[in-house]
Write a structure and sequence with these properties.
heterodimer; A: 226 residues; mainly alpha; 8 helices; B: 67 residues; rod-shaped
């Protein structure tokens, strides 16, 4: 099976990661308060942004599925949410490591940013059991799309609610990046692009693999070999 | 503006930084390994299908007629 664009996307991802890691460890200055530990910022924050964006994009794809009844949109929505969940595990682990090093605790329960992310993650963790509990493929796709849209709408609402909350110790990222010096900002943006490219590449590979398996099954059926 | 250090702080947490990056790349690596295993299965299935097609050409003929 030919995968147009996938090779270029993979090469771009590797190149972007090489540039990103070089900038993180050899170009970005050391922050005064956290020191070298602040380097986790360039991994944890892009991971979190890409994860949350993935959940919202999954919801938008689900809207496209319900509007067009095209099963390909459902498959794309499923793959994007699946990938966001994997990235979400990365966010929780890197966040806990950073929290333990900075605050002395692996997890802070009264911190809205952390708890809200965990709620979103746990909400999406129910997506796959819900999906595969339904046997009829059409109903499965429809119900999964409704779930993806509802949960996708919850992500920005949750984000706004956390912003409006009064007390927090977790730093505000999208508001505070403007306070970053130019070199840190550049490193952060390159890391964000690299993470988004990695997400897109893995989703493309997963989609290509799924399409190949479906084609193979169909071919086996037609040939009467199954 | 975020304050920058003029010298490396005495208390460094290099281990946590290394752990975070290692965990991240391990997750990606595990995922790629799972994809590679799945790809191996697909390749094996394609080989089996091709072999069966050679052994039973009437099945392939039926497919051509369907198309």
């Amino acid at each position: 099976m030919r995968l147009p664009g996938l090779r270029a996307l993979s090469i771009s991802t590797v190149a972007a990661f090489c540039v990103s890691l070089s900038l993180v460890f050899f170009y970005a200055p050391i922050e005064a308060e956290e020191g070298f530990l602040q380097k986790i910022f360039y991994l944890h924050v892009p991971l979190a942004i890409v994860t949350l964006a993935g959940f919202v994009i999954g919801g938008l794809m689900a809207i496209a599925h319900l509007r067009t009844r095209d099963q390909r949109w459902d498959m794309r929505s499923y793959v994007v949410i699946h990938m966001s969940l994997i990235f979400g595990v990365g966010v929780l682990i890197t966040g806990s490591l950073w929290a333990h090093a900075s605050w002395g605790h692996w997890w802070v329960w009264n911190e809205p940013t952390l708890v809200s992310f965990l709620i979103i993650f746990l909400l999406y963790a129910t997506y796959q059991p819900l999906r595969f509990a339904i046997e009829d493929p059409e109903r499965q796709a429809r119900y999964a799309s409704v779930f993806a849209i509802t949960a996708g709408a919850f992500v920005p609402l949750n984000f706004i609610a956390v912003r409006l909350s009064a007390s927090y110790v977790h730093p505000r990222v999208l508001g505070s990046t403007s306070n970053l010096p130019g070199s840190m900002m550049l490193t952060f943006l390159v890391s964000l692009v690299a993470m988004a490219l990695l997400f897109a590449t893995l989703c493309s590979y997963e989609l290509a693999a799924k399409r190949t398996r479906i084609l193979l099954k169909a071919r086996s059926r037609i040939l009467g070999f199954q | 503006m975020t304050p920058l250090a003029t010298a490396l702080p005495e208390h460094t947490n290099d281990g946590y930084v290394a752990a975070a990056y290692i965990v991240f790349f391990a997750i990606v690596l595990i995922y790629v390994a799972i994809m590679a295993i799945r790809l191996g299965r697909v390749e094996r299935k394609v080989r089996e299908l091709s072999a069966q097609e050679r052994e039973h050409p009437e099945g392939a003929q039926k497919e051509r007629e369907t198309v």
